[in-house]
Design brief:
Elements (H helix, E strand, L loop, with lengths): L5 E5 L5 H9 L1 E6 L5 H8 L8 H4 L4 E2 L8 E2 L4 E11 L4 E11 L10 E2 L4 E4 L2 E4 L1 H4 L8
Antiparallel strand pairs: 1-6, 2-5, 3-4, 5-6, 7-8, 8-9
Length: 141
Amino acid sequence: MDFTPRFALLTGPWNFSYKALIKTGECVIGIATADLIETILNVGTTTGSETDKFATFGLTALPASKVGAPLIKECYANIECQVVDHIKSHNIFVLDGIKAWIDEERKEKRILHARGDGVFFADSEIFERREKMKEKLPPGV
């Protein structure tokens, strides 16, 4: 959000992550690379209230050092975060990064970015996945 390790995360009461953030006041942000796009889509379109995402999608949980949530071994980077504010009127959580992890040995380092409309990119390569995400996209997107 500025020049500190501060992040804004938008989610709402319909989301299992929202409830976890309210309950624990902490989380881990996993920074995924382009080779994980299909896994990320599967993780992002499945609810943690019904599915163990680590077991279902072959992810490896590693212990974090500052928060209770696990790191994701398959991610290029993980950021342990604490909730410092919750702007309820906009469903925004403000997070402070308190510890960062990077897997320098990982071969793929192109970080995957979501545009929010079912399209992703990494180092100017476009990954169009609107069809797979159509049920999760708002009307008109």
